[in-house]
Design brief:
The complex is a heterodimer. Chain A is mainly alpha-helical. Helix content of chain A is 71%, strand content 0%. Chain A is built from 11 helices and no strands. In chain A, helix 1 packs parallel to helix 10, helix 3 runs parallel beside helix 9 and helix 9 crosses helix 10. Chain A is globular. Chain B is α+β, with helices and mostly antiparallel strands. Chain B has a domain of 316 residues: Cytochrome-c3 Hydrogenase, chain B (Orthogonal Bundle), CATH 1.10.645.10. In chain B, 39% of the residues lie in helices and 17% in strands. Chain B is built from 17 helices and 17 strands. In chain B, strand 5 and strand 6 form a beta hairpin. Chain B is globular and about 60 Å long. Classes of the chains: A mainly alpha, B alpha+beta. Chains A and B meet through helix 1, helix 5 and helix 10 of A and strand 9, helix 8, helix 10 and helix 16 of B.
Chain lengths: 299, 516
């Protein structure tokens, strides 16, 4: 089985940017356009890797460390999440907490790097990001706690395959996690990844000053984040039993991820962004859903 | 009481320069303030140096010259213009404290002529060019370090400044915006322009010449028809040319096509700013379709070369007319489908409604024009109030909405698209026969003409003063943006800074039209 889990990691490393392509193709379809190529995210990352870097003189080591630590964190997260019923290489009891907070570490350093530039835009983006993630975090953690309680397991690799199919609490947690998913990955209705208007941005504005390979790390890191958080949702909705054939369950899980990307694309095509002051309300709603699920599990 | 002080004119009516009343600064000030209190509106307020009025050499305005101030007030209710003038030197008591809509004009007078409006509360340059007086001994307002000025500052802890521009993230014109914020809330926005200043008004002196028409076409590229129409009305009034009804009708069609195309683009851009993709993409394309209809008419998507002195350069033949009708039909269906998506999406309405609110009284006090004014329940449309050209014979209903927010500014655009499409269809159905251009005589000497046209952004005002040879002693252009930039600043008060791009787009003002 270790070979299977290593293959799973390689699949994640290889296919993550494709999710962005699928989202963009879905959006283009709804807008009646051809849209950018499916593999545009790969091309962007390669392009950025080949470019030079520009550093502002006002920045310090933290600014340079941000993208590296960000990418490293999300790689660790990738090693914690199981795919298709195969235990992850880094599975241990309590790894769901590490999973939540390793993503927190990624965000923390992105925020620090943004603040390090001293730009008023990036400061605004950082303050928004911190506010919203502070509200998204309880929704994610309580949701995972509900699943952990239901499956009597403290490791994602044991929890996810054991989730009962579409029980009420699982449905609640899924909706909550979907909201967190959109928020954490800076998608509509929380943030508009396509906007050029720096005053309205949340995530994008924090990385305005990064360039070249640093920016490639950030692009790749956010693609991987889309992948790992998606895997948690897919793992809950389509629990792959460990007894079934590995190959088929991996294929179906990846298919599920692609389907999730299509859903994200549809959401982005059919609704406008929320006004910034309304975002906390939606996140609190997600937190309440998780809490209800937790109460249901406790009874 | 002051009616005696004013010369009353109709839109595009020629008068002798000597007939413009010249009163003392005190009478001038009182006359304007009282008239504005009684419902008149400042269309233009500008200075002309005495040497230009005395047939002396152009281009060399001597330092310290006396300046003659002209005020042109629009009486929208009775459809007339009131003109008055006064001579001032060095300074005069500012109108702004009692008549806020004069504020931007007085800043311009201060910057151009070093005439200080005493008591003006916000006396900073608006374009950051050197004073036209070229007096090295006087500092004046001629600080040529563009964008560097004494911005208002908010004191206190947790208060921060956000500076945006002049280089923006999108492909748009340059302008600098300074926000005084407390967290996400904007207390005040100060707008600093002038990056697009080209010296258009100076270049027009001694005209009309070969280049004049092309300057007019490019005052604001998206308002080509609006500005060229206003300019040609002036030339035709000066020369006493009777333009054929057919030419007027074609000009009207082009003006409304320009309005439809820009409004469609704006609605798409508003959708894009809130991240609502379908309308954003569709309207981007449909705007192109409407621009292509103008191209069908004259070969240029922006209508360059269409409106010429004496009429139009391109006729609308039967074949073209039929094609245009077909395209309009499709355009109407497309734009209706795309725009109605907006009104059906709750998430879009939640963003538009009560964002960037301006009360009707503020809009009136500040003299806002065009869609920005009509969205605040102010019935103000030069096509209706001060009709010229084809609009004297064929009216378009004024589209007004009462909420004063981004939604209102979007909805008025949609109403106007429908009214304008209707207008074009009516014009095409009964296009008058006749020639499309008339022979132009030489412009009248020593005359004064005001021409007002409702462009797609709002009122375009051109004023010409001719010399003894019928050439321009002075030519003044007021783009609607000149009136409306302050509206954007006021709309942003107590708003979220993240809503600025949306508010900005709902006004969609011109930088080059303002900077000239």
């Amino acid at each position: 089985m270790p070979i299977a889990s290593i293959i799973n990691i390689c699949l994640g490393l290889l296919l993550a940017p494709l999710l962005l392509g699928i989202i963009n193709k879905t959006k283009a379809f709804f807008a009646g356009r051809t849209g950018q190529p499916l593999f545009q995210a790969y091309l962007d990352i390669i392009k950025q890797l080949r470019k030079g870097v520009v550093y502002s003189q006002t920045t310090s080591l933290i600014f340079r460390a941000g993208p590296v630590i960000g990418l490293a964190s999300v790689l660790i997260a990738l090693a914690i999440v199981p795919l298709g019923g195969v235990a992850a290489p880094l599975a241990f009891s309590g790894d769901l907490l590490i999973f939540a907070y390793i993503l927190g570490l990624m965000r923390f350093f992105t925020v620090l790097a943004a603040l390090d530039t001293g730009s008023s835009f990036e400061g605004m983006g950082a303050s928004r990001e911190v506010l919203f993630s502070a509200l998204a975090e309880p929704a994610l953690l309580i949701g995972l706690a509900a699943i952990a309680r239901e499956t009597h397991a403290m490791s994602l690799s044991q929890m996810l395959p054991a989730v009962s199919f579409l029980s009420p609490e699982v449905v609640l947690v899924t909706v909550a996690l979907l909201i967190v998913y959109l928020c954490e990955n800076a998608r509509i209705p929380f943030d508009d990844p396509n906007t050029h208007l720096e005053l309205t941005m949340i995530h994008e504005v924090m990385v305005l000053d990064h360039s070249g390979p640093d920016f490639a790390f950030i692009l790749y890191g956010s693609a991987l984040k889309l992948w790992v958080l998606g895997l948690v949702i897919i793992g809950i909705v389509f629990p792959a039993s460990s007894g079934s054939f590995w190959f088929i369950s991996v294929i179906s899980a990846i298919g599920g991820l692609f389907f999730l990307a299509v859903i994200v694309g549809i959401i982005e095509s059919t609704m406008a962004r929320l006004r910034l002051i309304r975002i906390p309300q939606l996140l609190v709603a997600a937190g309440s859903l998780s809490l209800f699920a937790f109460i249901l599990v406790l009874r | 009481m002051n009616s005696l002080s004013f010369k009353t004119l109709r839109n595009c009516q020629i008068t002798r320069l000597d007939d413009i009343p010249l009163v003392s600064p005190t009478v001038f000030r009182n006359a304007v303030i009282v008239a504005v209190k009684n419902g008149a509106r400042i269309s233009a307020l500008f200075g002309v140096p005495q040497n230009r009025l005395k047939d002396q050499v152009f281009y060399k305005d001597p330092p310290g010259a006396e300046i003659r101030l002209f005020a042109i007030l629009a009486n929208d209710q009775i459809g007339t213009l009131s003109v008055v003038s006064t001579n001032v030197q060095n300074s005069y008591p500012a109108l702004t404290p009692e008549c806020p809509q004069a504020h931007w004009f007085e800043r311009e007078i201060y910057e151009q002529w070093e005439i200080k409006p005493e008591g003006h509360p916000w006396l900073k340059p608006i374009r950051f060019h050197k004073s036209y007086m070229r007096d090295p001994s006087r500092a004046g307002s001629g600080d040529t370090n563009i964008g560097i000025t004494d911005f208002f500052r908010l004191e206190g802890a947790e208060v921060h400044d956000v500076a945006v521009g002049p280089v923006h993230a999108g492909i748009i014109e340059p302008g600098h915006f300074r926000f005084q914020c407390h967290g996400e809330n904007v207390y005040h926005l100060e707008i600093s322009l002038g990056y697009q200043h080209r010296g258009v008004e100076k270049a027009l002196l001694g005209g009309p010449g070969k280049r004049t028409l092309h300057y007019m076409e490019t005052i604001a590229g998206d308002t080509t028809i609006g500005h060229t129409t206003a300019y040609n009305h002036i030339l035709e009034a000066l020369a006493g040319t009777a333009v054929s009804l057919r030419a007027l009708s074609i000009r009207g069609i082009a003006l409304e096509l320009e309005r439809i195309a820009n409004h469609t683009g704006d609605l798409g851009a508003l959708a894009g700013d809130v991240g609502y993709l379908p309308t954003a993409s569709f309207c981007g394309r449909i705007r192109g379709d409407f621009l292509n209809m103008t191209a069908l008419l004259c070969g240029s998507r922006f209508g360059r070369g269409l409106v010429v002195p004496g009429g139009v350069d391109y006729d609308l033949t039967g074949n073209l007319s039929a094609q245009l009708k077909d395209r309009l039909q499709t355009g109407l269906a497309d734009v209706t489908a795309a725009v109605n998506l907006l009104w059906d999406a709750p998430s879009v309405l939640a963003r538009f409604e009560s964002t960037g609110f301006i009360p009707a009284q503020t809009a009136k006090n500040m003299g806002l024009v065009g869609t920005a004014a009509r969205a605040c329940d102010v019935v103000r449309d030069a096509r209706y109030d001060l009709p010229s050209g084809i609009f004297r014979f064929s009216q378009i209903p004024v589209s007004v909405w009462h909420t004063g927010d981004v939604f209102a500014r979007a909805y008025v655009r949609w109403l106007e698209i429908q009214r304008s499409l209707n207008f074009i269809q009516n014009q095409l159905a009964m296009l008058p026969e006749g020639r499309i251009s008339a022979k132009m005589e030489t412009p009248a000497a020593d005359s004064f003409v005001v021409s007002i046209v409702e462009g797609w952004r709002g009122e375009i005002c051109h004023v010409a003063l001719t010399d003894r040879d019928g050439r321009f002693r002075h030519y003044k252009i007021i783009d609607p943006s000149f009136h409306n930039w302050i509206g954007l600043a006021l709309a942003l008060r107590n708003q979220q800074i993240s809503d600025f791009p949306l508010c900005n787009k709902s006004f969609n003002l011109s930088y080059c039209g303002h900077d000239l």
